[in-house]
């Protein structure tokens, strides 16, 4: 289900010049979810993309505003939100980047927010990790 939606988003991005992610319904991922190579979360003009060059990039109006600086670390990189709230980029099972927060096992949710901040929340809805980006996605 999620993969289908994400693939449609990628296809639409290739067809239009001004990158809008408005057709993408999905701007969240939960513990256990994976963004595979070339997949994105999207919200209006913001996109959070696991690129084929292994860099995870937050784009606003096609401009990069945040990234993991992990380009060139693999060709099949994927992003997982783990049970302990950590974002992990791995290539063929080898981790190449991890976010700083690691907590107890819980159902964490990562949200690409309207205000351009990407936030991981725990089940009490407390933010535990942030990209600290502040841009309007609309
Ligand atoms: C969004 O995608 C995640 C997996 O990436 C999935 O768990 C969730 O159910 C999806 N939400 C919707 C509304 O499709
Ligand atoms: C966001 O800001 C907080 C507080 O300054 C900091 O601890 C955290 O490392 C920052 N997040 C990133 C991804 O740099």
From TrEMBL:
CDD domains: B_lectin. InterPro entries: Bulb-type_lectin_dom (IPR001480), Bulb-type_lectin_dom_sf (IPR036426). Residues 1-24 form the signal peptide. Keywords: Signal. Residues 20-133 form the Bulb-type lectin domain. GO terms for biological process: response to other organism. SMART domains: B_lectin (SM00108). The keyword Electron transport does not apply. This is Bulb-type lectin domain-containing protein. The lineage of its organism: Eukaryota, Viridiplantae, Streptophyta, Embryophyta, Tracheophyta.
């Amino acid at each position: 289900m999620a993969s289908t939606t994400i693939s449609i988003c990628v296809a639409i991005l290739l067809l239009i010049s001004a990158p809008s992610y408005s057709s993408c319904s999905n701007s969240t991922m939960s513990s256990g979810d994976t963004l595979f190579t070339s997949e994105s979360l999207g919200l209006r003009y913001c996109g959070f993309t696991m690129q084929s060059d292994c860099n995870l990039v937050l784009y606003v109006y096609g401009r990069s505003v945040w990234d993991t600086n992990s380009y060139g670390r693999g060709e099949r990189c994927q992003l997982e939100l783990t049970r302990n709230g950590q974002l992990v980029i791995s290539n063929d099972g080898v981790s190449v980047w991890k976010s700083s927060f690691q907590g107890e096992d819980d159902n964490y949710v990562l949200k690409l927010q309207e205000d351009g901040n990407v936030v991981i929340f725990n089940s009490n809805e407390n933010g535990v990790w942030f990209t600290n980006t502040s841009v309007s996605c609309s």
